[in-house]
Amino acid sequence: MKIGIIDADLIERKKHRFPNLACMKLSAHHKEKGDQVSLMLSWADIHRYDKVYISKVFTDTFCPEHILERDNVEYGGTGFFYDKAPPLPAEVEHTMPDYDLYREWATEKIALGEKKDKYRYYLNTSIGFTTRGCFRKCEFCVNQNSGGVVRHSPVEEFFDPKNSSICMLDDNVLGSKYVYDIWESLARTGRTFEYKQGMDFRLLNEKKIRMMINSKINKRAYIFAFDDIKDKEIMIKKFELFRSITDCFARFYVLCGFDKNSKYDDEFWERDLYETFERIKIIMEYGSVPYIMKYEKWVNSPWKGTYSNISNWCNILFRYKKMSFEESCKAQTRWNGGKEDSTMRHYKKALSELPDLAKEYFGLRYEEITRFKTR
């Protein structure tokens, strides 16, 4: 059979930084059966294939409806079904991914002058899940229907010795009673590794922290999350423990713009901005770095420009480390040759309409309030 694989995010999104694991597993499954498999880079020529698989991760990635209706097309993934996405068949799910699927595409990009490191996940990284699921049931998460953390695959199932690193996509590995066994199996590979989705900081204890710092985890991949200000007390407690043991670099996903009550009124938006800045402040105090994750409803906020300014400040490391929020906004005008753009307009709007917020948070500087020097 002639099999076509479409990673819709690859075709439609300007930035594509990570391969689609389901696509790689489907490719491997069909190659094992002797089928001819191609990574398709456009929506054209669908009719030339006996079977076409389409997968996407992001819900806002475009996909032509008329293509989904074709008899030779099958589609899936969180981008189509979010928390109700059907799993791959077991014989596909538990096969070694085809790490060559993106090779020709990535190699061509590098040949055109793009940096090789940008394509490390496509060319030199083993990818998989050691566990699946989470017990938190967060309303914004694709795992909100999960019953808990369960073992999924041994590392050997997706580890290719030809690859120099490993990337896990586990939802909450620290919530697994097998986490110590899993990290021992990672140690046996001799490869550096990371957990791309972030780890549950609230579940850290001294043993887990020491397990981390004594492992071959990528030293820039201590990635956690601080999604709810209601966790402030436990997060500070864990921060104190964490920083008493290690001075490593740590990044925290910071979700903003999500209202679990689905009201999304002015009161919510103002409160959410306060809570977002407060979480950033706490992360700063403990020598760590926030990464702003804006929930899709943020575009409806009367202060949507402020959300953009926050992410431009925090998600660009040199701005966050060297500038306050105010300085980051004003710097944009300097870089524009003195011409004010939307950055400064939105900054002035927040300054005028939310003066208490501005007074408390807009002048925070990492170098002044952090209590810890980190690597």
Summary?
With 375 residues, this protein is an alpha/beta fold. It has helices at 8-12, 21-32, 65-68, 78-81, 90-93, 103-111, 120-123, 179-189, 206-213, 232-245, 266-285, 304-314, 317-322, 325-335, 342-353, 355-361, 366-369, and strands at residues 2-7, 36-40, 51-55, 73-76, 125-128, 131-132, 150-151, 165-168, 192-195, 223-225, 251-256, 289-294.
Q: Stretches where pLDDT falls below 50 for ≥5 residues?
A: none
State the CATH architecture of the largest domain: Alpha-Beta Horseshoe
Q: How many angstroms does the end-to-end distance come to?
A: 52 Å
Please trace the helix and strand order, writing H or E for each element.
EHHEEHEHHHHEEEEHEHEHEHEHHHHHH
Largest beta sheet: strand ordering: 2-1-3-4
Oligomeric state of the chains in view: single chain
CATH third-level topology of the largest domain? pyruvate-formate lyase- activating enzyme
Q: Name the overall outline.
A: globular
Strand content range = 5-15%
Total domain count: 2
CATH superfamily of the largest domain: tm_1862 like domain
- DSSP strand count: 12
